[in-house]
Inverse folding.
């Protein structure tokens, strides 16, 4: 797959893409969440 | 390098870039009204700025050129580090550690990473000890980045290394001292954006040139099936994981004690040492305290994940794929200035250093294994072509034409147009030739320099250097206009990391050590500024006096591993485990630090050789040198589990913290 025969390297290559997608999806789904977490300055 | 000297166009672009950076430092200064502004950017940073600053601080020239070059040597197995950088360094860090760090930092009014630990565990010692560790080790890590950046600038602009060191450090000092963390983060965001664009172009161009993703990987897989210089340590090709195992590996020549070493180097030192250590980097953890709420962290995850993929993912992939270009596509044209190494005896051969380590060419009785080369060198005998590619009658490119003896199978057999393969190329001296180097990336990255022989005379040596692989690839494979983009990309990568390192050093010596020791708490900005200047001076001295030291080359991995082992259990425990006690945190930090240092000084071969303490005490470079694999295992693999165990056991044995203090920490 993708020209990479070794399963260990192929797993690393795909996991890089999957983990980036996870970051993007998490960021989009929680784009407006967490604002209530703000604390007063004092 | 990219080009032997830059023209007026490059100078204008670089000056414009530096002016914008200094302006952003000035903007930071104008917006700094308090110690909170100077130390943690006023706790109100935009998520894009925060994510880019985190990423650009994380990624230095050593990640792009240094580790990218290592990928050129060892292949795509390094992508496990990219995965850890994204999943652990961004996703886990931002989603699980970022929120609690931000909240507790705000709640306890902490302004630095050591201060957060100290206030969570009510331990002044923890703040001073952590501050001292940062002050002592970050300048070493900064020196590694500074040396890479300045050597690059010196070669590009045709100025001396010393001048580059002075100018570069003064520019960074100006905007860090002036603008504080606001100035640092504003300029980081600009530098990160430049780096992102540069690396994205590099990836797309490389895949396009090699016929697409699958075709490029297939070509790399095929190329990796040839005999390799690194076969003896478990290398199986650039698209394969190294041979995995523990103990003696079976080989054609009998049991091989180094047969699994590469797996342990790639996984324990490169992947775990850097990949886990990032979680407890003081200059990165403090970024979580610069935002207003969890919302900014959520948005920063998106930017950070994509940024790190495009940084390390591209560096490691392109570094590996550069082998296809050098082996199959590169053609070097220029005037053949001279040929060296044609002969029949070892004294007549040219020797290219393939590995350097203290005492590697010395027998137990002190005599050299190979008298033709230096005591710290392992070299390949070969014929070298010295070519002038820019027309100034100076040989700037050194290519292996063919190897001798056992080295013939693993060295390139270059092809010169019009000359039968293997024939003596000396008669072509002075003529313009066209050569296909057919070299692997590592054996293509040969540099020439002068060193002193044992008798004090000058000795010219040729050495393969991984840090030259990416620049050689950019110069050979990429279009001319990209050289300028890459020049600014590397400047940005070095400056964004250095500025945060210097800021962290300043806060550690000012806020964490000076203020805690003297009890004076009203001069944070002034003291931090003095601390930053002190840190820069120390880093510059390291960069000047230890430039070719082995220990500097290992500084990035040492610092990341040390932070992981010393700080990670106390940091994570402090955020999530209310039962963790002050004694447990102090014990865990101190023991994690001491075990790491013991392993570096007495066990880990490369570092122990460089430090020389083990050899002077026991007359062997590592206490476990005669045991297979142990001497290449990274300290973090040993010290982190011990540090975690100590934190748990001591917590269970000591009195829990008061409920009142826990309420204060956890916002009840």
């Amino acid at each position: 797959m993708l020209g990479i025969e070794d399963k260990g390297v192929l797993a690393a290559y795909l996991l890089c893409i999957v983990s980036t997608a996870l970051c993007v999806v998490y960021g989009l789904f929680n784009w407006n969440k967490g604002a209530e977490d703000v604390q007063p300055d004092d | 390098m990219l080009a032997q000297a830059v023209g007026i166009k490059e100078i204008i672009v670089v000056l414009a870039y530096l002016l914008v950076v200094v302006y952003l430092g000035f903007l930071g200064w104008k917006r700094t009204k308090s110690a909170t502004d100077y130390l943690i950017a006023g706790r109100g940073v935009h998520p894009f700025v925060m994510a880019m600053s985190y990423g650009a601080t994380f990624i230095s020239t050593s990640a792009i050129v240094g580790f990218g070059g290592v990928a050129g040597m060892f292949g795509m197995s390094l992508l496990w580090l990219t995965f850890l950088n994204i999943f652990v360094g961004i996703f886990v860090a931002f989603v699980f550690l970022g929120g609690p760090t931000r909240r507790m930092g705000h709640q306890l009014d902490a302004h630095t990473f050591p201060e957060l630990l100290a206030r969570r565990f009510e331990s002044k010692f923890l703040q001073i000890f952590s501050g001292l560790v940062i002050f002592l080790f970050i300048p070493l890590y900064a020196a590694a980045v500074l040396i890479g950046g300045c050597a690059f600038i010196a070669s590009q602009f045709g100025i001396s290394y010393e001048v580059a060191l002075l100018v570069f450090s003064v520019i960074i000092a100006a905007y860090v001292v002036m603008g504080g963390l606001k100035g640092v983060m504003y300029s980081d965001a600009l530098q990160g954006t430049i780096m992102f664009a540069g690396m994205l172009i590099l990836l797309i161009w490389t895949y396009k040139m090699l016929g697409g993703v699958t075709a490029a990987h297939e070509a790399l897989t095929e190329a990796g099936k040839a005999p390799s210089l690194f076969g003896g340590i478990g290398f199986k090709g650039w698209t394969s994981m190294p041979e995995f195992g523990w103990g003696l590996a079976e080989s054609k020549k009998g049991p091989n004690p180094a047969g699994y070493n590469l797996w342990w180097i790639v996984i324990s030192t490169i992947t775990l040492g850097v990949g886990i250590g990032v979680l407890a980097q003081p200059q990165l953890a403090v970024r979580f305290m610069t935002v207003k709420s969890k919302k900014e962290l959520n948005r920063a995850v998106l930017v950070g994940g994509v940024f790190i993929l495009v940084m390390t993912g591209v560096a490691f992939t392109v570094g590996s794929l550069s082998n296809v270009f050098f082996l199959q596509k590169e053609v070097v044209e220029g005037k053949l200035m001279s040929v060296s190494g044609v002969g029949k005896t070892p004294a007549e051969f040219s020797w290219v250093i393939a590995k350097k380590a203290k005492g590697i060419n010395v027998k137990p009785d002190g005599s050299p294994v190979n008298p033709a080369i230096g005591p710290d060198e392992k070299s390949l005998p070969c014929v070298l072509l010295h070519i002038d590619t820019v027309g100034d009658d100076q040989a700037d490119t050194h290519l292996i034409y063919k190897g001798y003896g056992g080295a013939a199978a693993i060295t390139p057999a270059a092809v010169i147009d019009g000359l039968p393969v293997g024939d003596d190329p000396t008669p072509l001296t002075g003529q313009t030739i066209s050569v296909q180097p057919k070299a692997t990336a590592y054996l293509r990255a040969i540099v020439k320099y002068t060193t002193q022989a044992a008798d004090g005379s000058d000795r010219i040596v040729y050495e393969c250097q991984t840090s030259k692989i990416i620049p050689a690839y950019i110069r050979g494979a990429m279009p001319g206009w990209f050289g300028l983009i890459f020049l600014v990309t590397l400047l940005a990568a070095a400056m964004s990391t250095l500025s945060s390192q210097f800021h962290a050093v300043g806060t550690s010596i000012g806020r964490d050590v000076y203020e805690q020791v003297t009890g004076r708490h009203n001069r944070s900005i002034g003291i931090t500024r003095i601390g930053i200047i002190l840190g820069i001076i120390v880093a510059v001295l390291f960069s000047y006096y230890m430039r070719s030291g082995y220990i500097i080359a290992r500084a990035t991995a040492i610092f990341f591993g040390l932070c992981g082992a010393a700080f990670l259990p106390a940091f994570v425990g402090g955020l999530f485990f209310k039962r963790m006690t002050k004694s447990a945190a102090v014990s865990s930090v101190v023991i994690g630090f001491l075990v790491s240092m013991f392993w570096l000084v007495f066990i880990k071969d490369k570092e122990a050789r460089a430090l020389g303490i083990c050899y002077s005490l026991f007359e062997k470079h590592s206490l476990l040198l005669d045991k297979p694999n142990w001497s290449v295992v990274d300290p973090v693999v040993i010290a982190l589990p011990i540090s975690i165990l100590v934190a748990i056991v001591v917590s269970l044995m000591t009195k829990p913290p008061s409920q009142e203090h826990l309420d204060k920490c956890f916002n009840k």
User: Anything to note?
Assistant: Residues 18 and 24 of chain A are 10 Å apart (CA to CA). Residues 1-28 of chain A form one domain. Chain A touches chain B through 30 residues (CB under 8 Å). Chain A has a mean pLDDT of 83.
